[in-house]
Amino acid sequence: MSTDEILAAYAWSAGDCFRCAKSKVPTTRVGVLDVPAGEHVDIRACEECVLVMERERRRWAARRGCVYRPGTLGSP
């Protein structure tokens, strides 16, 4: 799957990347934190960081003989 196809699998909006700290860049939700006050805070990552995480997921799947399904960061 190409880089463009992987990125197209996500919904993007401006935000701050938790991983590299870039701000006001296209980001996608890759997780959620539930804070004690009862709020749900999105964990967001930029395109570059999403591609790094997807690359690691692909390697992890290959090492374990699992099927790699891109576009599922942050899914339950």
Number of helices: 2
Strand count = 3
Q: CA-to-CA gap between the ends?
A: 22 Å
Structural class: alpha+beta
**Chain oligomer state:** single chain
Largest beta-sheet details: 3 strands, antiparallel
What fraction strand? Answer: 25-35%
Helical content (DSSP H or I, runs of 4+): 25-40%
Which outline best applies?
globular
The number of distinct structural domains comes to 1
Strand order of the largest sheet: 1-2-3
Poorly predicted spans: none
Element string (H = helix, E = strand): HEEEH
| Rounded Rg | 13 Å
Average pLDDT, rounded to a whole number, is: 94
Short recap of the structure:
The chain is an alpha+beta fold. The chain has helices at 3-8, 47-64; strands at 13-15, 25-34, 40-46.
Task: Explain the overall architecture.
- The chain is α+β, with helices and mostly antiparallel strands and 76 residues long.
- The chain has one domain.
- It contains 2 helices and 3 strands; from the N terminus they run αβββα.
- A 3-stranded antiparallel beta sheet has the order 1-2-3.
- A hairpin with a 5-residue loop joins strand 2 and strand 3.
